[in-house]
Amino acid sequence: ELKSVNDNLKATNRELDLQSKELNATLKHLKETQDQLIQSEKMASLGILVAGVAHEINNPLNFIAGGAYVLEDFFKNNLPEKFEEIRPVVEGINTGVNRASAIVKSLSLYSRNNDLPFSGCNLHDIIDDCLTILNNQLYDRVEVHKHYTNKQYSFEGNEGKLHQAFLNILANASQAIAEKGKITILTEIAQDEIHISITDTGQGIPPENLKRVFDPFFTTNDPGKGTGLGLSITYSIIQEHNGTIELDSQVGDGTRVKIK
Predict the structure, then answer these.
(1) Residue 31 backbone phi and psi in degrees, to 5
(2) How would DSSP label each residue in 23-84?
(3) Do 83 and 75 form a contact (C-beta atoms < 8 A)?
(4) Rounded to the nearest 5°, which phi and psi values hold at 215?
(5) DSSP bridge pairs for 145
(6) Does pLDDT of 110 surpass 70?
(7) Kindly report the CA angle at 165 between 154 and 140, in degrees rounded to 5?
(8) Do 163 and 112 form a contact (C-beta atoms < 8 A)?
(9) From residue 206, how far is each of 74, 209, 211 by CA, in Å?
(10) What would the pLDDT profile of 163-206 be if each residue is shown by its tens digit?
(11) How far apart are CA 33 and CA 169, in angstroms?
(12) Do 187 and 153 contact (CB within 8 A), yes or no?
């Protein structure tokens, strides 16, 4: 009888131990979900802030553009013989204004409300806008080669979320290149799918990390240099658009991200 009671106690203990492990796993998952929701809320707040800043920047840009036009018109009408001397200055001002306007446009698109319904999107424009935002990281360090398909296509999606997804991928590609390198972007139309390939010549991903890159909070960055949410969020966004995303990588040879 004592042996039977002892066996029952052991069985109960095993069951309690299993339940304890399940509860701990559930608590860990809830904590990760809570952290992800907090991070999402921060990103939403940042998006509102960025949209406001972008709008405010537009006002002084209009003043600068207007001043450049008045300056150009004055010299043409009153001092035509001096216009050639002042032309490089005016062109420089206009170039700066156009560059700043492109950044403002890209930031505005990036911060668009993620709850908007799907609408017609041009993926090439989205990628170009992301490259504009990352220009400071890429300039004079990373060559970008774009091979976009000429075939016509119709695609609907959430533009703000797609900006976020491609910005994450391109930022990772840039950060993977330690000094100088190249990023190649290829788009193709295959039957009813759009295929996008983004390849970098960076340091590559070790095999043991490759299978974990889409896990929430997984990162190889130093503390304070990333949350590990970028590719996890990107994966969710691609899935939301009925797509797939895969990575091929070799240490020392770079990484290729393939999206369908």
Answers:
(1) -65, -45
(2) HHHHHHHHHHHHHHHHHHHHHHHHHHHHHHHHHHHHHHHHHHHHHHHHHHHHHHHH-HHHHH
(3) yes
(4) -70, 140
(5) 184
(6) no
(7) 105
(8) yes
(9) 62, 5, 9
(10) 888 988 998 898 888 888 999 999 999 888 999 999 999 888 88
(11) 22
(12) no
The label of the residue with tokens 């691609």 reads 238
Among 160, 179, 77, 84, CA closest to 118: 160
The Cα–Cα gap between 162 and 155 comes to 12
| Total residues found in the chain within this entry | 260
68 close to 93: Cβ distance less than 8 angstroms? yes
The region, left, alpha or beta by phi > 0 then psi within -120 to 50, assigned to residue 191 is: left
User: Token pair of 210, please?
Assistant: 């490759």
Whole-number Å distance between alpha carbons of 231 and 165: 8
Amino acid at 159: E
Q: Rounded to 10 degrees, what is the CA torsion of 139, 145, 149, 154?
A: -30
Residue 249: burial class (beta carbons within 10 Å; 0-12, 13-18, 19+): buried
Residues 121, 124, 125, 127, CA torsion sign: positive
Tokens of 224: 């304070």
Q: What is the pLDDT of residue 55?
A: 66
Tokens of 72: 């150009």
pLDDT, tens only, 24-41: 888 887 877 776 666 555
What are 172's two structure tokens? 């990772």
Residue type present at position 125? D
3-state secondary structure of 141: coil
Instruction: Decide: helix, strand or coil at residue 195.
Output: strand
What's the confidence (pLDDT) of residue 226? 44
Contact 241, 157 (CB under 8 A): yes
